[in-house]
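Run log, item B.
One chain of 112 residues. Sequence copied directly from the ordering sheet:
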Amino acid sequence: MIDQITIEEALELVDFELYPEGWRVKNVKGNVRGDVGGDIWGAVLRDVCGNVHGNVLGSVCGDVYSDVGGTINGRLWKFIETPKERLRRLIEEDADKDKILEALDRLEDSND
C-alpha cells in the first residue's frame, strides 16, 4: 500500500477556503517543498514569514520576512534598502555619527 496522508493530517498542515471558482489553500502551517503553481497572497500577519526558494509560477503579493532565492521575471532578486530604512537601521545599530549623518543626507535628497 502506498503511504497516503489522511484528511486529518492534511488539515493540520493546511487550511482551505471555498471560493466561487472552487477550493483554494488559505493558510499553510508548515513548509512547502516544491513549486507553487499559482499566486501567493499575504494577509495581515499571514505574509511569507520564511524563505522563498524554488519556483512560484504566479505572483507573491505580501511581505516576505526572510530571503528570496532565484529570480523574479527572469532577473536576479536583490534587496535594496531605501534611504529611510538605512537611516532607521543605522540608528538601531548605534552606528557612528558620520554614517548616520551621511544616511540623513541621502534621505533628504530622496523622495522616501
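Observations after the first pass:
- The helical segments are 7-13, 83-92, 97-109.
- Residues 37 and 65 are 21 Å apart (CA to CA).
Flagged for discussion on Thursday.
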